[in-house]
Amino acid sequence: MIRREVVRTKQWITDDEYLDLLSLGNLLPGSNPINIAVLIGSHIAGAPGACVAFFASVFPGFAILMLLGAFALDSHQPWVQGALSGCAAVAVGLTLANAYELTFKRIDLVEIALVAAVAASVLVLHISLALTLVIFVPIALVVTSRPAKKAS
Amino acid sequence: MIYGRLAIVFTILSLLGFGGGTAIIPQMHADVVDHYHWVTSADFARFYGLGKLSPGATTTMAALVGFAVAGLLGAVVATLAVFVPSGVLVYATGHVWGKLRGNPWRERVARAIKPVVLGLIWAGVFTLARGVVGGPVAIAMAATATVLMLVTQWNQALMVLAAGAIGAVVLR
Fold this sequence. Notes:
By secondary structure, chain A is mainly alpha-helical. Chain A contains 6 helices and no strands.
């Protein structure tokens, strides 16, 4: 959706540039939609553009969550709590589907083993996010740069 | 001071949040539920559900954690802390990135990060699942959502919205 708007309708950037920014937005820390917005904003209009894009991409979600949250957090009505629990259950189900697709449709067995090792270390050994990155990114660098059997 | 603590927790999450929102869920849970006890595990999962429901990044759920701890100002602090540091980093890196096009290390790092992020996402799924209340009914709803997501192209936010309506009736 973002691509259609900025590449085709507005023609702010080319497809190649967009894909380039997308790969960076996915790689760096931070939420992808916001990263992409900042990168496109800065590409088009420098630092002011990045700021505008940042607030424009953060604010609507923030405002809606404040309205929903202020209402939901103050309410001890059983139906409100039930509604929120329903949202939680389905959101987890959706994320599970997402994780499943990303894991089993795109990468090879050795990488899947790495995925499992990371998940197990976090869930069972409770190692921190920082430590996870320090330990597993170097391992992943070795594992994923085996002589190319073209995965993904 | 509570605002300072919120700012520190979410700034660190922001800077370590490689691969987007869901990968930071286990650490966010460890910080705001297990360590500081700002919110319960059940509320954490509910906030995640609301985050999926609202437009933009699911990570905006940080606002709800901030709100639960310290009201509207807490929400603003948490939101800025979770998005601004990574935003600045991305802005600063954007210029360099284009120049690295064709550099083999660029692709190599991008590829190596993927399985690590996926492992964190799986850990996030299980971390959240432990907080979901509602017993077998909630599990059935989650399983249905998983299947629907895999076999249809239905809009995710609408599915979460429908789940809210169903939950209001059956999970009360």
